[in-house]
Amino acid sequence: MVALQKLGERLTQTPASQLARMSLSEEMQAALKESARIKSHNALRRHYRRLGKLLRNEELEPIQQVIDEIDGKHQAGVAHFHALERWRDRLIDGESGDFGEFLDNYPNADRQHLRHLIQAVHREREKEQPPAAFRKLFKYLREVSGI
């Protein structure tokens, strides 16, 4: 029962576009819409129990598939974000081999602009300035990678 309540709570946080992909009963859809207007913590706890009871009558496999797909995309995005952070650190600390490897992985990157951004980060660190260039470099890496 607790697992169904947690699933119900998760469904209240799921975007409407994703909920439309699930074959939910009208009663369940109405209960999920109703959860948006509930503000009280205790009322939400009671509502999650109600959602758990309603989920007993639902087919859980398609619901769980959509939830797993959403979570998988999120985890892949986080992993890509962390990979870009590692690239940023390698490029700043790095050797020419790291720079070449980055350009091999992302051939659409502008070599000159990338070098300029890395040099700006070095100057910024020497002068102990706020990390504006550091952020610009990361933003550029995100643009190059297609995020």
CATH fold title of the largest domain: Diphtheria Toxin Repressor, domain 2
Tell me the major beta sheet.
none
**Overall 3D geometry?**
elongated
Helix fraction? over 70%
Low-pLDDT sequence parts = none
Q: Overall pLDDT, averaged? A: 88
Description:
It is a single chain. The protein has helices at residues 2-12, 16-19, 26-35, 41-55, 60-93, 96-105, 111-126, 132-145. It has 147 residues and is mainly α. Helix content is 78%, strand content 0%. Helix 1 crosses helix 4 and helix 7 packs antiparallel against helix 8 (132-145). The chain has 2 domains: 2-58, Orthogonal Bundle (Diphtheria Toxin Repressor, domain 2); 71-145, PSPTO4464-like domains (Diphtheria Toxin Repressor, domain 2, Orthogonal Bundle), CATH 1.10.60.30. The two termini are 39 Å apart.
Concise description?
The protein has eight helices and no strands. It is mostly helical.
Fold topology:
Blueprint: H1 2-12, H2 16-19, H3 26-35, H4 41-55, H5 60-93, H6 96-105, H7 111-126, H8 132-145
Helix pairs in contact: 1-4, 3-4, 5-8, 7-8
Structural key phrases:
single chain, mainly alpha, Diphtheria Toxin Repressor, domain 2, 0% strand, elongated
